[in-house]
């Protein structure tokens, strides 16, 4: 009987160690830049945010001041969540709109990057010859004309891609509800 108690105790202790080892790891204190209530800002998160901010503004940021801004932002977010503002329908709609707009922007940018167009010297010369007079010397505007024609051709290719997308799609419109 005593042996059974030892086995049970051993199993319980083993399960405790197993459970502890499977628990999600909290960042070590040496990696934590700040704690704001239950929210942790790790060194990696801080460094990444700082680098993004500096890249966007092209200005070196004061690290302590930037951290204070992150803390203030987190406190305000926590307060908004506590007030239930994150559950508000208008907030959810604005998040949905932002998501959709960002998705569309990324799609268009990716498609534009994928589209390869070329413009011949003849097309550039024809464009130049159709410009109103007086016109600047050809050598001064050749690169600008090339860029404008490439952009125009990309826009036309993008439009053709979208028209093809529409043609392949199944679109049904309830005319009675549109009137």
How would you summarize the topology of this molecule?
Blueprint lengths: L1 H21 L9 E5 L2 E4 H15 L5 H20 L6 H26 L6 H9 L8 H31 L6 H4 L1
Antiparallel strand pairs: 1-2
Helix pairs in contact: 5-6
Write up what this structure looks like.
The mean pLDDT is 89. By secondary structure, the chain is mostly helical. It has helices at 2-22, 43-57, 63-82, 89-114, 121-129, 138-168, 175-178; strands at residues 32-36, 39-42. The longest helix has 31 residues, at 138-168. A hairpin with a 2-residue loop joins strand 1 (32-36) and strand 2. It folds into two domains: 10-87, no CATH class; 91-178, no CATH class. The chain has a two-stranded antiparallel ribbon with strand order 1-2.
Residue share in β-strands? 5-15%
H and E string: HEEHHHHHH
Q: What is the share of helical residues?
A: over 70%
Please state the overall shape, judged from the principal axes of the Cα atoms: elongated
- Rounded mean pLDDT score: 89
| Residue windows where pLDDT falls under 50 for at least 5 positions | none
Overall radius of gyration: 30 Å
- What is the strand arrangement across the widest sheet? 1-2
Helix segment count? 7
């Amino acid at each position: 009987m005593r042996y059974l108690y030892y086995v049970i105790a051993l199993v319980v202790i083993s399960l405790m160690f197993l459970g502890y080892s499977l628990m999600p790891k909290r960042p070590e204190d040496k990696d934590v830049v700040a704690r704001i209530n239950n929210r942790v800002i790790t060194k990696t998160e801080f460094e990444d945010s700082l680098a993004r901010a500096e890249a966007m503004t092209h200005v070196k940021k004061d690290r302590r001041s930037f951290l204070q801004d992150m803390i203030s932002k987190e406190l305000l977010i926590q307060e908004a969540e506590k007030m239930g503002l994150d559950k508000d329908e208008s907030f959810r709609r604005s998040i949905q709109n932002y998501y959709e707009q960002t998705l569309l922007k990324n799609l268009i940018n990716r498609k534009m990057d994928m589209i390869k167009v070329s413009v011949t010297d003849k097309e550039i010369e024809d464009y130049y010859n159709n410009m109103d007079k007086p016109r600047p010397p050809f050598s001064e505007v050749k690169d600008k004309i090339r860029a404008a024609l490439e952009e125009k051709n990309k826009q036309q290719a993008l439009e053709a891609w979208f028209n093809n997308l529409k043609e392949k799609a199944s679109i049904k419109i309830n005319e009675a509800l549109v009137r």
